[in-house]
Design brief:
The protein has 384 residues and is an alpha/beta fold. It has 10 helices and 16 strands. The structure holds S-adenosyl-L-homocysteine.
Length: 384
């Protein structure tokens, strides 16, 4: 049996493995990855977490009303739009959860009503909290259905009084009927509008919409493995595709001649450029573009990369991207995947020209059924 259980487990549905011990979870994930990827090579032992609790540095809560008008906040009940009112969660950062609970407590005295998705009445839709585990900086994003937050300054003051650890508060307006949490329009209510976290000796600025790995403890191990597999010697031209705020590329830049990061999200690219400057990294450039489009153009220009590091979202990469990677003929491809199913699909395309030489699974998301995998592929004719 697991050491802890969760009273919301049935309704929330986020932690499919909540009743398993850490060892059992790791065994399940190992089995799953083995089944999907063993035809490509030996799947190494999964790298687990010693203490698999409260690892999430980013916590999101949706706000609404229960019958009788009571404010509720937490997560959607699986496959519905009913909100499960969550007071504690084994995987979320405890500071973040307690900030969200206190926002809920403060709302009535500031006459802030939760938003109602059906009627469009009310104001507060979501709260997003991000905490830099290594710096302690905390960002609170208040997502509103309309732009006016009553007694805004006093509300922020009251929140800061309860949580002096908060370093920035951002108001985001999402007035659309959409499943996206964040809208376009943002205003900084307190602090710089972003947080900075530290990872592997570098400092990374993260704004509300930029991707940042949610489990910073495991991220260190994951990145270290990826960079080790890239086997850089200081002479390489490296592509960091789907680079987010440039974390992997910047860490790799110390051991490469030149790094190019490609990322679709404008805010993440802005963060990435500022991050490079702040860390004094001069041999990196970021391009804001669809990775597939960028790669098609690079291949057409006859560009060559020595190493391609790619870390696409759960939907995986695309045929355009992979075909163009093959044209640019890197010696090695390091593929970091948060979805072994799309990884297996993409490896099928890559292995016509590359052979897989390492497959290392990582448990980045304990208690959930998700699993991360790092693979290293080598060009079949490399060195010949
Ligand atoms: N390597 C980064 C980010 C990985 S998450 C890190 O470790 O932090 C995947 C990233 O791919 C996200 O930042 C997302 O915005 C970006 N992305 C999604 N689709 C993309 C596309 N078609 N082209 C380029 N980037 C894309």
């Amino acid at each position: 049996m697991a050491e802890k259980t969760c009273k919301y487990k049935k309704k929330c549905g986020g932690c499919k493995y909540i009743d398993l011990t850490n060892e059992q979870q790791l065994a399940e994930k190992q089995k799953f990855v083995n089944k999907l990827l063993k035809s490509y090579g030996k799947v190494e032992d999964i790298v687990g977490m010693g203490y698999p609790y409260n690892y999430r540095n980013k916590v999101h809560a949706v706000f609404g009303s229960a019958k009788g008008g009571k404010i509720v906040c937490g997560t959607y009940e699986e496959k519905t739009h009913r909100i499960v009112d969550i007071a504690e969660c084994h995987i979320e950062d405890k500071v973040a959860t307690s900030i969200i609970r206190d926002i809920k407590e403060l709302m009535p005295s500031f006459k802030i009503k939760p938003y109602n998705e059906d009627t469009g009445y009310g104001l507060l839709r979501h709260v997003l909290v991000r905490r830099g585990f290594n710096t302690g900086e905390v960002m609170v994003v208040l997502v509103l259905g309309s732009p006016v937050l009553p007694s805004r300054n006093n509300f922020v003051k009251a929140l800061l009084k309860k949580h002096p650890e908060i370093t920035t508060v951002v108001q985001n307006v999402n007035d659309r009927n959409t499943s996206m949490v964040l809208g376009e329009n943002e205003k900084v209510l307190y602090g710089p509008g972003f947080i900075v976290d530290e990872l592997m000796g570098m400092r990374f600025r993260i704004s509300s919409k930029s991707f940042y790995q949610v489990n910073p403890v495991q991220t260190k191990h994951l990145y270290r493995q990826a960079i080790e597999l890239a086997a850089l010697t200081g002479t390489e031209r490296v592509l960091d595709a789907y680079c987010g705020t440039g974390t992997i590329g910047m860490i790799a830049s110390k051991e490469a001649k030149e790094v190019i990061g490609v990322e679709l999200n404008r805010d993440a690219v802005k963060d990435a450029r500022k991050n490079a400057k702040a860390n004094g990294v001069k041999n990196i450039d970021f391009i804001c573009k669809d990775a597939g489009d960028y790669m098609l153009e690079a291949a057409a220009r006859g560009e060559h990369f020595d190493v391609v590091i790619m870390d696409p979202p759960r939907s995986g990469s695309t045929k355009e991207f992979i075909d163009s990677v093959k044209k640019t003929s890197p010696d090695r491809v390091v593929y970091i995947s948060c979805n072994p199913e799309t990884l297996a699909r993409d490896l099928k395309l890559l292995t016509r020209k590359y052979k897989v030489n390492r497959i290392v699974p990582f448990d980045m998301f304990p208690f959930t059924s998700h699993c991360e995998v790092v693979t290293c592929l080598e060009r079949i004719d490399a060195g010949k």
